[in-house]
Fold each of these.
Amino acid sequence: MRIVIFGANGRTGRLVTRLALEHGHHAVAVTRRPNEFPFTDHRLTVAGGDVRDPSSLTGILDGADAVLSSLGVPFSLRRLDTYSVGAANIIGAMRDTDVRRVAVVSSTGAYPYPNRIDPPAALRFVEPVITRTIGKSTYDDQRRMEDVVRGSGLNWTIVRPSGLFDLPKPTNYVAGDVDPVGGYTARIDLADYLVTLAADSSCAGKTVVVSTTKDTPTMWQMIRREAFSTA
Ligand SMILES: NC(=O)c1ccc[n+]([C@@H]2O[C@H](COP(=O)([O-])OP(=O)(O)OC[C@H]3O[C@@H](n4cnc5c(N)ncnc54)[C@H](OP(=O)(O)O)[C@@H]3O)[C@@H](O)[C@H]2O)c1
């Protein structure tokens, strides 16, 4: 398959790109910083593109079989719209090129899950604070993005991970149209699931979760690591 990856130069996106190549696919990595993309491969095309600028997406989706998006922007107290504007522009480019399959990353924070299985104790206190303060504009825009994707008429899947952290290789993660388990998702598990979804339409038209249940950090370890890490 030829898979176009938006957010490809991000922490999840690089893993998605690597796994797509390892699974034998052709990958088109879309980034605003093509010169900084960290690896090459004979089946990899690195394309410069800004999802906020539809003209920059021209030609990028030609011949694609599926689109995966793990693009994201940092939390901000200002109004954000890159998720929703970006999704609308990606969908527009897909329509122009007759590409039908798309899976986009949202977040369980956008629609908190009251029936989450085995939530970390601290999540009960941390999540409401984040969703009402520093995360509010992100989650508002992710909800708008989800509406855009649901209304697209495409073969879509929305993927909601929980708190992202890093592990070296995929685990036996829980994924699908189920309640999340615990409070975390390893980026490598999210990436593995996205690459699976590119070729698997059984979750088309569904909003799904992906949860890592092994080797997870504590809430405080995760906040510390994520606060001081860079892409
Ligand atoms: N952190 C968490 O705990 C958490 C929890 C649930 C869900 N999520 C979601 O998971 C996703 C992946 O997270 P991550 O930490 O792997 O992301 P990340 O490292 O922040 O990467 C996101 C990438 O999006 C790209 N991007 C941003 N604006 C763009 C634009 N206008 N045009 C094109 N590309 C653009 C950037 O690439 P370039 O700068 O190279 O263009 C960036 O590398 C995000 O959607 C995030 O909201 C995160």
Note: The first helix runs from residue 11 to 22.
Amino acid sequence: MDDRINDTLDRWDRESFLHPSTHLAKHARGEVANRIVQRASGVYIEDRDGTRLLDAFAGLYCVNVGYGRTEIAEAIAHQAQELAYYHAYAGHGTEASITLAHMVMERMPAHMSKVFFGLGGSDANTTNVKLVWYYNNILGRPEKKKIISRHRGYHGSGIMSGSLTGLPMWHTHFDLPLDRVLHTEAPYFMHRQDRDQDEAQFAAHCVEALEAMILREGPETVAAFVAEPVLGTGGIVPPPEGYWEGVQEVLDRHDILFIADEVVTGFGRLGSMTGSAHYGLKPDIITIAKGLTSAYAPLSGSVVGDRVWSVLEQGTDATGPLGHGWTYAAHPLGAAAGVANLRLIDELGLVENAAEVGSYLTMGLAQAVSDHPAVGEVRGVGMLSAVELMADPQAGTFYPAGAGIAAKVTTAMAARGVIARPMPHSEVLGFAPPLCLTRAEADTICEVTRAALDEVLD
Ligand SMILES: Cc1ncc(COP(=O)(O)O)c(C=O)c1O
């Protein structure tokens, strides 16, 4: 560390850069190593010291097509030269943003109608909530405004999107959540309170808890339910059998809009184009980001279904233009990246590859680590896998909160050349590699995971 601290970039980093999700004091004091990433290609990133790492989390599960795709880089460069920026207010558009809107809608469930483009998942979820409130105001139901989210859900870190997030770290010391946001039970079977419940009983229990909350609050006050098709940052947890069918029925019964947050699951992550298609969901609004551009440029979207769209039409006819937008909404560079990215996903068959190599990876992880004494479960869907660590799986004992075991394992993995993510608020190793992962690369991930577990926990 000492000779590195004299290095200019390292010094500037610690002097000047306030990083997200970082122990700020330790970083500024130089007590934790930083990594300055220099270049990347395929599923590998390389730092400026020349260390090459297999990125088994695709950045923050976003570089879905893999790194170094010249098709996308060239599309962005071309767009920057021709028209780096024009806004989208008052009906303005660009060839890229209009083409991308069309391509997005071709890939969404048939009942979806239009897409509003933002910059990231957090602002898209803010847009969604504003549209939901607008919807109920136009319908003459000003009291129907509460949003139900889930504990362990992740929907961003803005004031509204951070309120939707159901993880304490995003609330504590920030005066969140806002009081119109409520959190219901997480469909996390491994962590169920009643150990006698089987999966179907647990799913029914979660659905009942949701309906009980709606009835307690009064259905006339509850506007929307927001959820990721697969819990992501909260632990990478596919839903228990029967959960989505039950939730969908409850929402329909009480006339509550459904926002499916597909920031992670959209555009192939689950081995299907959308999580909604994967699980047969019928959302009214879908949040998209990450895989929309594979993070080659920032862009997100709020996709609205027919039911919401018809009220937006009615509203603007009655009251005038929608009072919502960002300067960079539908930014042409993001849109150009999105067009090239979605084409590439099709051309390379990445949705299919996510299904095939993704299940190979989850099975490989199960084979590699299931017999390890600290492994409680290996789970996954598509190119999204998790290894949950437990103090004593036989006795059903979890590690105490904040034990940091997963972080130690992922540090040992990085030393062996593979990046996995220690999921916050659980002892879970998370895997979400680029969708172009090969079987050989999946084998490397499995071998390194086992070796790191042995090193840290034996
Ligand atoms: C499901 C989900 N929604 C929203 C977000 C927030 O997106 P962003 O970080 O682009 O604001 C994330 C980020 O990880 C996410 O996983």
Note: The mean pLDDT is 97.
